[in-house]
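Handout, section B. The chain below has 222 residues.
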Amino acid sequence: MDLVVVARNCAGSLGATLAALPPRELRSVVVVDSGSTDATPLIARDAGAVLLHERVAGYGAACRRAIAHLESLPRPPDAVVFMSGDGSVDPADLPALVSPIRSGGAELVIGVAPRGSTEGGAADRVALGLIGLLYRQKFGGLGAFRALRFPALVALGLSDRGDAWNVEMLVKAVRLGLRIAEVPVSLRDSNLMPVSRTAELRQAVSSTGRMLFQILRHATAR
């Protein structure tokens, strides 16, 4: 099982995140640097991770870069875990996340906040509600901490290059009939570099639009 860590300006958290990973659970760690302007690439390389660079902005673009790398290996992984390098998840939760896949009970596992806690904002709640309405599938969150079998990941054929990557994965997994499980994980505030309120609002609007597009697009696909 391989781990993909998407990182952009995560110098404040990436080193601790990589150091806390349970080594026995993973074959390799791949860090995709998504245009960082800080020491993120150096930290990844010093930690012994495979370092990839993606010039196209967006979470989905970074994930697609990692998938292309994994497909090119002489022996691709049997499963892959995705997580952010911003310190928002606890690496100690990784064994619990991959357990349903190792036991054969699931093909896709999503790390979500424990029941009763809050995760995501209004856009996430709208997206989750719409998925429930159109796909008759309820999810506890849109968490980016995920594990899935690599053949299933390739079969999904994910194309979104931005923040709707995780939503596209969910709706396509439902349509494909994958066995999906959710595991409660610890979620924390990220350690990303602060951005202006205007930039934050612009990003939120763009992300919401992309998520709704993916949900509606695949709901009407034949």
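Note. The first strand starts at residue 2 and ends at 7. Compare this with the example in section A.
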